[in-house]
Amino acid sequence: MTETRPNDHAPEKDGGKRYWLDDMRNVYKLFWALVVLCGLLLLSDAFYEKHVVFEFEHWFGFFGLFGFFVSFALVLTARELRKILMRGEDYYDR
Amino acid sequence: MIAEFPPGLLLIGGAVLVPFLKGNLRSAYSLILPLLGILQLTTFEPGSFGAMAAFGFEQTHVRIDKLSLLFGYIFYIAAVLGVLFAWHNDDALEKSTALVYVGAAIGATFAGDLITLFFYWELAAIAAVFLIWAARTDRSFRAGFRCLLIYMVSGVLLLSGAAMYANATGSVAFNNIGLESPGGIFILLAFGIKCAFPLLHNWLQDGYPEASVTGTVFLSAFTTKLAVYALARGFAGTEVLIWIGVAMTAFPIFYAVIENDLRRVLAYSLNNQLGFMVAGVGIGSALAINGAVSHAFAHIIYKALLFMTMGAVLFRTGTAKGSELGGLYKTMPWTTGFCIVGGASISAFPLFSGFVTKSMILTAVAEEGYVIPFLVLLFASAGVFHHSGIKIPFFAFFAHDSGKRPKEAPFNMLLAMGLAAFLCIAIGVYPQPLYALLPFPVDYAPYTTTHVVTTLQLLVFSGLAFAVLQRTGLYPPELRSTVLDFDFSYRWLAPRIIGWIMALGGRAWTAMTGGVLLLLNGLIARIFRTHGPHGILARTWPTGSMALWAAALLALSLAFYFQ
Question: Does A55 reach chain B within 8 Å, measured CB to CB?
């Protein structure tokens, strides 16, 4: 989780200026705002008539859940691919 | 007079003067040329001119229709943006090469026959390589050479395909070719190399990020979109393109997630976006072709914008590596904002340019009943938001604070980025002018409730996945690394296989020559034994014994003679 902690080595020359996002509490606020937005978008499926082609597109919340799970799977697969594909930065220059 | 002048030659010829100018004058001159070009296009009426006969075929130097005009306009717009972004860069080589490159791409767009197309196709390839070399680094020199070799293969394929096609049909006119035509497969592969088809793609991720801050912005716009144009012209409705396009959208995004060099991440996402266009060309319906070419139009602008923002970061900090960046929003707020606009456009958020163009392709794929391609394109849409919409801005401008406090980008860069960002939003909010330019009449409404809500669901939930992965620490951190792609085959494997064969051949040669030498030595030794100074045949015989033998022989012959 270290790579998500902002301002972990802010320079002195900045005069210790704190930005709104430097406060982790504000970052958490943004995260929960995103969760709420997702909830609202999911519920909105109940309030309009979907004009789509395939049967599965009619399923409640299909696009949201599809987007979430494929993105999750994408990142985890890519993470595993690193084990096979990742080499040192100077790999081709050696 | 300007009306009947080949549009590509305007820039190619104009580039000759660039080395003789300096500073602002040189930049202003480079800006005026594409502006003049746009002016010229507004006077064009559908038709053709510059007919000539060479090599025994009728050629058409300039063919004007809605398809070629659309690409002509966007190429000139990209040139204007690129020149503005590079205003401060007083490099005569890069400036003149860029103009030749743009001119060649435009010349190829308006080429009415395969021979003219080939001529401009090769010129664009050579200019692109010089544009990579203009970075003047060792890495760019090597990458440029690899690109050159691959581009030459494309040129040879195009020429051989065109020759077969002309031989069989008696015409070199560049219209719908199709896979069934003689030479069709060669021409398709020639276009496919430049369009970065899977396994033919690596020159793109290898070469483009090695060009200079400003060179990459030019490169991102032309070569690959020229190939999309050529596919739309020659291979619309070729079904295999649907599957090729679908594969292209999916597999680069895995790389984009783990690649560290953010300009290389953008090259992977460029490849992914080309996939959408190729799939659209493969469907081939009026809606799909409109979608593919309008997506190319929108894509050129937002991709240039994204490369400009990462170029500005590279310009100010000296690096575009995710592992060394972060927190730049504090001192580069404008660049951050423009990057987010570019990210929203490539991710096809409603009100941004990608939305009004990509949704046409997705709708066309669904309407033709292709379930699996539809699902893969949906996956790729979520994926592109993940790595271009979030990863790029997040790791460059937010994430952990790198401690870097660079100055905001120079004014000319901000101006170019601002203009591109404005166009991204303008097309997204008011797509009608773009729709009016499309080759087929547009009967399509992007802003329906279903489109907007389903797109937002897909994207925002994809964003949520990113946030959850970050919070749980599952997201792979940016690491200094090289990620092996298909170029492994020719940058690592092939040299080693060739080295191994050479070593083996060397050993075989030594062994063979050794064996022959041994035989020869043996033979020589034997001859030496008998014929050498001490050999039995070299002994001096007494003269008396010879006289005796001669007498014996004479006596014998006498005896026979008198019998």
Answer: no
Give B19-30 as a 3 state SS string. Answer: HHCCHHHHHHHH
B99 CB-contact burial (10 Å; exposed 0-12 / middle 13-18 / buried 19+): buried
Between chains, do A88 and B481 touch, taking CB under 8 Å as contact?
A: yes
Is it the case that residue B2 has pLDDT exceeding 80?
no
Q: How far apart are the first and last CA of chain A?
A: 33
Burial string for B267-289 (b: 16+ CB within 10 Å, else e) reads bbbbbbbbbbbbbbbbbbbbbbb
Residue B48 has a pLDDT of 86
The domain segmentation of chain A, as residue ranges, is 1-48, 51-94
Longest dimension (CA), chain B: 134
Is the separation of the CB atoms in B380 and B253 below 8 Å?
yes
- Which one of A2, A3, A25 makes the best mutation probe of the B interface by having the most chain B beta carbons within 10 Å? A3
Burial zone of B126 (CB within 10 Å; 0-12 exposed, 13-18 middle, 19+ buried): middle
Contact A67 B481 (CB under 8 A): no
Mean of the pLDDT values across residues B503-517?
Answer: 92
| H helix or E strand, kind and range, residue A49 | none
Is A65 within 8 Å of chain B by CB?
yes
Q: Are B259 and B265 in contact (CB under 8 A)?
A: yes
Do B474 and B323 touch, CB atoms closer than 8 A?
Answer: no
For B491, which residue in chain A has the nearest alpha carbon? Answer: A92
d(CA B252, CA B194): 16
Instruction: Please report the DSSP string for B356-424 in residue order.
Output: HHHHHHHHHHHHTT-HHHHHHHHHHHHHHIIIIIIIHHHHHHSSS-----PPPPPHHHHHHHHHHHHHH
Q: What is the ipTM of this complex?
A: 0.86
Among candidate residues B88, B27, B81, B22, the one with its CA nearest the CA of residue B410: B88
Distances from the Cα of B554 to the Cαs of B545, B550, B557, in angstroms?
A: 14, 6, 5
Task: Give the per-residue pLDDT at B307.
Answer: 97
CA angle A12, A15, A16 (to 5 degrees): 80
Cα distance between residue B380 and residue B269, in whole Å = 10
Q: Which residue of A has its CA nearest to B472?
A: A1
Mean pLDDT of chain B: 93
Nearest CA in chain B to A11: B403
Provide CB contacts within 8 A for B501, sequence distance 6+.
none
Residues B69, B41: contact at Cβ < 8 Å?
yes
pLDDT band at B402 (very low <50, low <70, confident <90, very high): confident
* DSSP 8-state code for residue B489: I
